[in-house]
C-alpha cells in the first residue's frame, strides 16, 4: 500500500474514532444526573468561586497550571468533595468533577479513586469545555497513561489500574472500544512480565478481537505460543 493510501486510511480511521467519541459523549450527557443541591444558592456561590479560580489558570504554562492546582486549587476544593462523599449526597456537582479532573491532571490517581466511582455511578457530567470526552473516557484515558508511566518507572500501578479496568468491563462504561483494547494490551504486558503466559494470551487475543487494526498484539501472541508449545 502506498504512503498516500496509508495516510488516507489513517485519516479515515482517526475521523471514525473522533466520531465515536463524540457519540459516546452525547450518549453519556443525555443520561447524566439532573438534580441540584438542596441549598442551591450557597452551592452556586461555591461553583462560581471555583469557576473564577479556574479562569485564573488561563495563559499559564502547563507546569505552572499544575503547580497552582496542587498548591492552591486542590487543597481549597478537595474538602468540599470529601464532604459530598461523606454526606452520601446525590446531585449535579461540578466541584466534585473538577476535583477529579485536577487530581488526574496532576497525576494524583490514588487520591482521585475515592471520588471516581461515586461520580461515575451518579453519571456526573463533564464541564462544557470538554466537547469530545465523557467522564468515564477521561478517567480511563488518564489512568492508562499514568499506569504506563508507573510501569516504565518500575513503580506500582495497582490497585488503581485493575480497579478501573474491572469497572470499565463489569459496569459497562461508555468508552471507545479502542480504549478497552488498550487496557487489555497493558494487562497482557503485565501478565507477560510476571510469566503468567496464559492470562497474557487471553488479554492479547481479546485486544485483537476488539481492535484488529490498532491492537498490534500479533507478535506477542506468537511469542507466547512458542513458549507454551515448548
Order of helices and strands: HHHHHHHHHH
Helical residues, percent: over 70%
SSE class = mainly alpha
Please state the average pLDDT score. 88
Strand content: under 5%
Shape: elongated
| Unreliable stretches covering 5 or more consecutive residues | none
Put simply, the count of helices is: 10
Total number of β-strand segments? 0
Layout of SSEs?
Elements: H1 3-31, H2 40-55, H3 62-86, H4 94-105, H5 109-121, H6 135-152, H7 160-170, H8 177-193, H9 197-210, H10 218-229
Helix pairs in contact: 3-4, 4-5, 4-6, 5-6, 6-7, 6-8, 7-8, 8-9, 9-10
Kindly list the characteristics that best describe this protein.
230 residues, mainly alpha, 73% helix, elongated
Task: Put the structure in a nutshell.
With 230 residues, the chain is mostly helical.
Report what the structure shows:
It contains ten helices and no strands. By secondary structure, it is an all-alpha fold. It has a domain of 160 residues. 73% of the residues lie in helices and 0% in strands. α4 runs antiparallel to α5.
Amino acid at each position: 500500500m502506498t504512503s498516500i493510501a496509508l495516510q488516507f486510511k489513517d485519516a479515515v480511521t482517526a475521523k471514525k474514532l473522533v466520531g465515536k467519541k463524540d457519540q459516546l459523549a452525547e450518549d453519556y450527557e443525555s443520561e447524566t444526573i439532573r438534580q441540584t443541591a438542596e441549598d442551591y444558592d450557597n452551592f452556586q456561590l461555591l461553583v462560581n468561586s471555583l469557576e473564577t479560580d479556574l479562569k485564573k489558570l488561563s495563559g499559564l504554562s502547563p507546569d505552572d497550571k499544575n503547580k497552582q492546582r496542587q498548591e492552591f486549587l486542590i487543597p481549597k476544593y478537595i474538602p468540599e468533595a470529601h464532604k459530598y462523599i461523606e454526606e452520601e449526597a446525590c446531585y449535579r456537582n461540578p466541584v466534585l468533577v473538577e476535583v477529579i479532573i485536577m487530581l488526574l491532571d496532576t497525576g494524583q490517581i490514588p487520591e482521585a479513586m475515592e471520588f471516581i466511582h461515586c461520580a461515575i455511578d451518579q453519571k456526573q457530567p463533564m464541564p462544557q469545555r470538554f466537547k469530545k470526552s465523557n467522564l468515564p473516557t477521561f478517567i480511563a484515558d488518564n489512568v492508562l497513561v499514568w499506569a504506563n508511566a508507573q510501569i516504565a518507572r518500575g513503580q506500582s500501578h495497582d490497585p488503581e489500574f485493575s480497579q478501573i479496568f474491572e469497572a470499565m468491563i463489569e459496569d459497562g462504561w461508555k468508552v471507545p472500544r479502542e480504549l478497552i483494547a488498550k487496557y487489555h494490551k497493558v494487562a497482557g504486558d503485565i501478565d507477560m512480565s510476571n510469566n503468567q503466559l496464559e492470562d497474557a494470551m487471553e488479554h492479547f487475543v481479546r485486544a485483537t478481537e476488539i481492535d484488529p487494526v490498532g491492537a498490534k498484539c500479533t507478535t506477542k501472541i506468537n511469542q507466547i505460543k512458542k513458549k507454551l508449545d515448548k
